[in-house]
Specification:
The chain is mainly α and about 80 residues long. Helix content is about 45%, strand content about 5%. It is built from 4 helices and 2 strands. Strand 1 and strand 2 form a beta hairpin. The model has no long low-confidence stretch (mean pLDDT about 80).
Length: about 80
């Protein structure tokens, strides 16, 4: 049986010691390169560094692009309705 400690599967006593301290047994040094490899191995998407830097530098541009992708037909700040039916 593999014990689960703090959400981490622990195979050895060393893994259990890391997990008790709140460290990931597969990446106890919290190395970003190892974290990316682990994320890819379990199927999580990893954002490229340049895309992340662009998002951090200009979050309003990313929000506008996302809004335009969701509602391409809508232009301007809102819609005008005529309630005289």
């Amino acid at each position: 049986m593999i014990p689960i400690i703090n959400g981490y599967a622990c195979v050895t006593g060393e893994d259990a010691a890391f997990a008790r301290r709140g460290l990931d047994p597969q990446n106890p040094t919290n190395d970003p390169a190892i974290a990316d490899k682990l994320a890819v191995s379990v199927g999580r998407a990893v954002m490229p560094e340049d895309a992340f830097d662009a998002l951090v530098a200009h979050p309003e541009a990313a929000a506008e692009q996302a809004h335009a992708a969701i509602n391409p037909a809508r232009s301007g700040p809102g819609r005008i309705f005529d309630f005289k039916a």
